Every structure is written in structure tokens, then in C-alpha cells.
Amino acid sequence: MISVSLDALDLAALLCSRVCHDVISPVGAIVNGLEVLEDEKDASMQEFALDLIRKSARQASARLQFARLAFGAAGSAGAAIDLGDAEQVAKGFIQDDKLSLAWDAPRVLMAKNKVKLLLNLVLVATNAIPRGGRIEVSVQAEGDAAHFVIRATGRNARIPTHAEDLISGHSHDGNVDAHGIQAFYTGLVARAAEMRIAFALDEETVTLTADSAA
């Protein structure tokens, strides 16, 4: 394994590509719906187009709100974030008939980087169950220490390809692309938050844990 080294411009570009990838689909659906409204006179088709626009607009908004907390500044350096806000954006992001989210965390303020790490681990968990399933988030917090457990249960669950290496800051060739940038960024945030990440696979459940470093 080779350590990955990205300069600030490349990291920013790859993260922007990741965010754009998440919002292109709902924004494109909004455009399609507007085109149907312009061209169709049939009332049922117009109502279908309006439903598509409403659903896609909510989805685009939810994904942007999630990205703001998971990837953005979300306040000044050293700021704390309410875990209730993290729960809200996570549940908004997971608006998929194939996925469900259970959230068990105290409503407390937590250091920004720890909350960003938690949300990024939720993203990693969604990639562990590509056919859908259930994600369970559990958070324990005591002072500056935190303990996260994220379980992803679903058919053909697996630890996402290269996720463990990228989170540790390594890859086979020393490079990272737009597909792997989220896992790599998760590792950067974990180290900034002084937390260690571990993976485990037990039949159809992938468990991610993160603990404050001693």
C-alpha cells in the first residue's frame, strides 16, 4: 500500500465532484418535470410532472443540507454542532424506499469534526448495503470522548471496496479518484477528530465503530 497525498486543490475538486454527483440526478429530474409541464396539456401528465418536481426538489435540498454538514465548514473553526441537526439531515438524505435509518443519540452539542465524521460514516454504511436494508446509528458521548457504532444490515452486505485502505490514507497506487474520495475524506476527518475507525462483517451486517483515541 502507498500513502495517498493530495494537495488542497485536488481534494477540493474531488469533493466538489462528489457533491455534484449526488445532486445531478434530482436536479435533472426537476428539469425533466418542467419540460413536461411546458409540453403536456393532459391534466394527469401535468400532475405527474408536479409530483416529480416536488419529490426531486425535496431530495436535492436534503442532499445539499447533508453535504453542508458532512463536507462543508458548518460554522467557524472549533464550532460545535447539535446532534439533533445531524439526525435531521441524515434522515433527510436517506429518502430511499430501499433504506431505513434508526438513530439513537443524545441531543447534545458535539465538536464539529466528530459530527462530520459521524455523517461520513453513515455514507460509508450506505455503500455497504447496495441492495438496501437498515442502518442503525448509536452514539455515546461523555465530555470530549465519543463512541460511534453504525450497523448496516442488508442482503449481500460487504465492506465497501478499498474503504478500509482509503480511510487509513492508503491506496494500491497512491492515487484516489472521485469514487474513493469520500472514504479518503472520512479518514482525514477521523484523524482531525482524533478518532479511530474499525470495520467488522458478520453475515449480512457491516459494523463501523469509531472511538476517541486514547
Output the keywords.
49% helix, five-stranded mixed sheet, Heat Shock Protein 90, 214 residues, alpha+beta
Structure description:
By secondary structure, this protein is of the alpha+beta class. The chain has one domain: Heat Shock Protein 90, CATH 3.30.565.10. It has six helices and nine strands. It has a five-stranded mixed sheet with strand order 3-5-6-9-8, with helices on one face. A two-stranded antiparallel ribbon has the order 1-7. A two-stranded antiparallel sheet has the order 2-4. A hairpin with a 2-residue loop joins strand 8 and strand 9. The longest helix is centred in the N-terminal third of the chain and has 32 residues, at 8-39.
Q: How many domains?
A: 1
Which regions have little confidence, pLDDT < 50, spanning 5+ residues?
none
Bin the helical content.
Answer: 40-55%
CATH H-tier superfamily: Histidine kinase-like ATPase, C-terminal domain
Assign an overall shape.
globular
CATH class: Alpha Beta
In CATH, the topology is named Heat Shock Protein 90
The number of E-state strands comes to 9
Largest sheet: 5 strands, mixed
Largest beta sheet: what is the strand line-up? 3-5-6-9-8
CATH architecture annotation: 2-Layer Sandwich
Structural class of the helices, strands and pairings? Answer: alpha+beta
Proportion of residues in β-strands: 15-25%
